[in-house]
Each structure stands twice: as structure tokens, then as C-alpha cells.
UniProtKB/TrEMBL annotation:
It comes from Micromonospora radicis. The lineage of its organism: Bacteria, Bacillati, Actinomycetota, Actinomycetes, Micromonosporales. The keyword Hydrolase applies. Residues 19-206 form the Isochorismatase-like domain. This is Cysteine hydrolase. It comes from the Bacteria. InterPro entries: Isochorismatase-like_dom, Isochorismatase-like_hydrls, Isochorismatase-like_sf. Keywords: Hydrolase.
Length: 230
């Protein structure tokens, strides 16, 4: 089994047949000016450093034949799946559903809601639309992972302390092992990035493991692993 000895709090071994790469919310609404992230007063430039390493990791995971899944946070055009508290919170310059330069903020089908060009999903890669911060809440993700016999997740995306953390916590409670790739997750707040990662690996790995994408790329095969016959 590939093993990442540099992972913290301890070495992380994973079975290529039961591991998937999860790319969380790498959407224009979080990473580009004019979207939801910026409407809350954030510097979206803080997140863009994740695109380079994640592009390389995505290529490596695809070459190795791993299951790759993407998520997008967003709401139906009539906002019926958006709790009023979420809509009203934060005193944003633009609210969810308001028009912006990339279309209506955080609304499914709008340009800003979609994934940045560099990380566009390939045909056949599942894209899970989620109304919440966690990727398991009100989605079919758990069932989809079960169908594919996935038990461990390489977790990437934005933002570290919000959707990445919520998803890792949900996954942990459902029995998935999570390795979070530090250079492929991003926060608008450098201190939240550091503490968010520390919280995952603390207490003997209370939520999972943390490593860098280079450590994963170093142990991934460069040709697809065959799925075991069922
Ligand atoms: C936020 C997310 N930060 N994808 N969403 O609202 O982390």
C-alpha cells in the first residue's frame, strides 16, 4: 500500500482501490473577484495559491485512475434550499442570489457558481451540488462513495476552516479516513489555515491526517490501477 511517512500525526497508508480525491468548492464564487467570498470582505487572492498544486495533484490522481469527485456550494434559483439565517448573515456587500459580475451570487447554473477553468471536471467525474458547508449534508455523496467502494478521501479545496473542515468532520463520523493536503486547501485567513490543519491532526489525528501534495504524488502510480473485480 502507498504510505506517506511525512503525514502528521503519523504515517498514512492508503489503498488505491478504495481511495478518492475530493475537490471541494473550487468555484469562481470563492476564488475570483465579484463572487460570494469577496462579497463577505475577503481577499480572494489568498485562495489562488491552491490552484497550482491542486492542478498537479488532479493530474496525478487521474493518471493513477483514482475516483475524482468535485463539489460546489450553491442554491436553487428560487433560494428554496437556502436557510434564511444563511441568507441574512454576514452583512455582505451582495447577498446570495443578488446579481454580480459573474451572475447571481452562489446560484446553481450561474458562471460564478462553476469551478475555475484550471480545475474543470472531466466528463464522468461526479460533481456534487450541495446547499450546505458539508459535502454530505443533503447530497448523495455517501451513497456515491459506497457504490464505488471508497473508504478513504484525499481532501482538497476551499475554505480550510469552513467547507473543508465541515466535510472532513462529516466524513470522519461516517467512518471515512481523510488525508487533507495542506497546500491544496486554502483559507482567506492565514491563521485559520494553520490552526484548521492543526485541529485535524491534533490529539492523534482526531479528524484525520495532514500532508503535502508532493508526498502523495511521490507514491501514486503513473498508470491506472485496475479496479478489483467484484
Ligand atoms: C464558505 C466554503 N466559506 N466553501 N464556503 O462559505 O468554504
Amino acid at each position: 500500500m502507498p504510505t506517506i511517512t511525512a503525514a502528521r500525526p503519523a504515517a498514512y497508508a492508503f489503498d488505491l482501490h478504495t481511495t478518492a480525491l475530493l475537490v471541494i468548492d473550487m468555484q469562481r464564487d470563492f476564488l475570483e473577484p465579484g463572487g460570494f467570498g469577496e462579497s463577505l470582505g475577503n481577499d480572494v487572492g489568498q485562495l489562488r495559491r491552491t490552484i497550482g498544486p491542486l492542478t498537479a495533484l488532479l493530474a496525478g490522481a487521474r493518471a493513477a485512475g483514482l475516483t475524482v469527485l468535485h463539489t460546489r456550494e450553491g442554491h436553487l434559483p428560487d433560494l428554496s434550499d437556502c436557510p434564511p439565517a444563511k441568507l441574512e448573515r454576514g452583512a455582505p456587500s451582495r447577498r446570495i442570489g443578488d446579481p454580480g459580475p459573474n451572475g447571481r451570487i452562489l446560484i446553481r447554473g450561474e458562471y460564478g457558481h462553476d469551478i475555475v477553468d484550471e480545475l474543470a471536471p472531466l466528463p464522468g467525474e461526479p460533481v456534487i451540488d450541495k446547499p450546505g458547508k458539508g459535502a454530505f449534508y443533503a447530497t448523495g455523496l455517501d451513497e456515491l462513495l459506497a457504490e464505488r467502494n471508497v473508504r478513504s478521501l484525499l481532501v482538497t479545496g476551499v475554505t480550510t476552516e469552513v467547507c473543508v473542515h465541515t466535510t472532513v468532520r462529516e466524513a470522519n463520523d461516517r467512518g471515512y479516513e481523510c488525508l487533507v493536503l495542506a497546500d491544496c486547501v486554502g483559507s482567506y485567513f492565514p491563521e485559520f489555515q494553520r490552526v484548521g490543519l492543526d485541529m485535524i491532526a491534533a490529539q492523534g489525528g482526531i479528524f484525520g491526517w495532514v500532508a503535502d501534495s508532493m508526498d502523495v504524488l511521490a507514491v501514486l502510480p503513473t498508470t491506472p490501477v485496475l479496479q478489483p473485480s467484484s
